[in-house]
Automatic annotation (TrEMBL):
Domain Glycosyl hydrolase family 13 catalytic: 20-410
UniProt keywords, alphabetically: Glycosidase, Hydrolase
GO BP terms: oligosaccharide catabolic process
Gene3D superfamilies: Glycosidases, Golgi alpha-mannosidase II, Oligo-1,6-glucosidase, Domain 2
The name this protein goes by in its record: Alpha-glucosidase
Family per similarity comment: Belongs to the glycosyl hydrolase 13 family.
Tree of life domain: Bacteria
GO molecular function: alpha-amylase activity
SUPFAM superfamilies registered for this protein in UniProt: (Trans)glycosidases, Glycosyl hydrolase domain
Keyword ATP-binding included in the entry's annotation: no
Hydrolase keyword on record: yes
Species whose genome carries this gene: Rhizobium hainanense
Length: 548
């Protein structure tokens, strides 16, 4: 089945629906307990049937896998655990044949310490790549050059006995940071990007896009005014105690992003989406990175990846973006491979999880911007509860038990309810276990149930595709006396009204007097609310109407 999306042309990415694939957990075809690229190819019809525009593949490059592939040792090859370049080319052809674009991760702020660039760089202080990474002398007392911290815990510096210097790492000690102040580093990174462009990829998701440059003077970060945990650094992590003025989001990044965009513009219909994690400055950073049409096409932030499921929160996030980012574009998401699955974050009880899963995609699909779905959310998968001995995520292992890490959202995709490992692998053991709760929500079981979360996703995304106003139309919030999320989406001659009741009690909403309803439109999976002078909504319900 081909994708039912209507994306086309140079602006296909604007308002697109992107499906994130985490390759090691999607489908195993060689019985080693790990997903692979042939497995992605096998399951592409499932993705296309959802009606999405593109897939985004998390890293599949050659890597020692200390951080599950986000520690790259070769930017231009496929790690053998995932397959070969020929497998990738076959997957690309199959995806394009189904009408799906292909976006791949680019993890270029750092490499693995086993990358040949770093092996050469650490060999001496005067070799050709000596300055390709961020090296610094110790203080007179032997301690690190400054107070920078690693997101994964501890100092952001690691001592190297060969060079007798420290190197910077924002993540694991085995993930040294590249020195983007060096023009040859930029050239080498862009050459790797060109390799994949020439192979036909349609775009890039840029991991930690605001981490490329650090302060040349290596100045200390000041303390945060309010030390709070965030989605990239939970309260158990002291990383949140600093105001990260100097170790990321440097002004030189703008120039590199322009170089990146200039390369992409040599090819037709390509796109970029940057991951921005910058605390209170995120919107300011997104505005700078997406303005002017000469840098990133769009960014996504961590704003909707937290536990807040309230009208005020969603209105504030979207309004703040619209107020601050004048000519840029956003990609919204509720879940990804780094955060707890949103059904577990938003639902108050296990019984209401299917209802919350349906309401969440209905809301996400009506927001202004592109949207990203994470594999398994179309099944309403909750966060997996894992034992410590099952963990593979170094972040979770480091901060256990205060923070359980990211493995709970990375467990394998359940395809067939009655098979071992829910059909993910024929191996005796999967790299992470498949919870029995997930097997009960497997794809084959939901395909047979017309009322399933899976069918709801398909119908909701088809509804989005049918209305141009939902792809890239204007969005205006309405004030009401009830605690609901009310807004219109408009394009051309069509204006749609949406009223979301995110509470656990029924409400009656008096519409503003200047709203003239033409007709009620049934949102997939929800009844048509009673409409008179007010809109009557059940708990966790939504109303849609077309204005006269």
């Amino acid at each position: 089945m081909k994708s039912t999306s209507k994306a086309a042309g140079a602006d296909w990415w604007r308002g697109a629906v992107i499906y994130q694939v985490y390759p090691r957990s999607f489908q195993d075809t060689d019985a080693n307990g790990l997903g692979d690229i042939k497995g992605i190819t096998r399951r592409l019809p499932h993705i296309a049937a959802l009606g999405v525009d593109a897939i985004w593949l998390a890293p599949f490059f050659t890597s020692p896998m200390a951080d599950m592939g986000y520690d790259v040792a070769d930017y231009c090859d496929v790690d053998p655990i995932f397959g070969t370049l020929a497998d990738f080319d076959e997957m690309m052809a199959a995806a394009h044949g189904l009408g799906l674009k292909v976006i791949i991760d680019q993890v270029i702020s750092h490499t693995s310490d086993r990358h040949p660039w770093f092996v050469e760089s650490r060999a001496s202080r005067d070799n050709a790549k000596a300055d390709w990474y961020v090296w610094a002398d110790p203080k007179p007392d032997g301690t690190a050059p400054n107070n920078w911290l690693s997101i994964f815990g501890g100092p952001g510096w690691e001592w190297d006995g060969v060079r007798r210097q420290y190197y910077q790492h924002n993540f694991l000690t085995s993930q040294p940071d590249l020195n983007f102040h060096h023009p040859e580093v930029q050239d080498a990174v862009l050459a790797a990007v060109k390799f994949w462009l020439d192979r036909g990829v349609d775009g890039f998701r840029l991991d930690t896009v605001n981490y490329y440059f650090c302060d040349k003077k290596l100045r200390d970060n000041p303390p945060a005014l309010v030390a709070t945990g965030g989605l990239d650094a939970p309260e158990s992590n002291p990383y949140g105690m600093q105001n990260h003025l100097h170790d990321k989001t440097q002004p030189e990044n703008i120039g590199f992003l322009k170089r990146f965009r200039a390369l992409l513009d040599q090819y037709e219909n390509r796109t970029t989406v940057g991951e921005v994690g910058d605390g209170a400055r995120s919107l300011e950073t997104v505005a700078a990175y997406t303005s002017g049409g000469d840098k990133l096409h769009m960014c996504y932030t961590f704003d909707l990846l937290g536990p807040d499921f309230t009208p005020a929160h969603f209105r504030r996030c979207v309004s703040d973006f619209q107020d601050n980012v004048v000519d840029g574009w956003v990609c919204w998401a509720f879940s990804n491979h780094d955060v707890q699955r949103h059904v577990s974050r938003f639902a108050e009880t296990e019984e209401e999880q299917p209802r919350v899963a349906k309401l969440a995609i209905s809301l996400l699909s009506t927001l202004r911007g592109s949207i990203c779905l994470y594999q398994g959310e179309e099944l309403g998968l909750p966060e997996a509860e894992l034992a410590f001995e099952d963990l593979r995520d170094p972040y979770g292992i480091r901060f256990w038990p205060a923070f359980k890490g990211r493995d709970g959202c990375r467990t394998p995709m359940p395809w067939e309810a009655s098979r071992a490992h829910a059909g993910f692998t024929a191996a005796d053991k999967s790299w992470l276990p498949v919870p029995y709760q997930h097997a009960a929500l497997a794809v084959d079981k939901q395909e047979a149930d017309e009322d399933s979360v899976l069918h709801h996703y398909q119908r909701t995304l088809a509804f989005r595709a049918e209305h141009a106003a939902l792809r890239d139309g204007d969005m205006t919030f309405l004030d009401t006396e009830e605690d609901v999320l009310a807004f219109t989406r408009s394009k051309g001659g069509e204006t749609l009204l949406f009223v979301f009741n995110l509470s656990r009690k029924p409400v009656k909403v008096a519409l503003p007097k200047d709203i003239k309803l033409g007709k009620t439109i049934a949102m997939p999976g929800f009844g048509t609310a009673d409409v008179g002078a007010t809109v009557a909504l059940a708990a966790l319900d939504v109303y849609c109407g077309k204005l006269a």
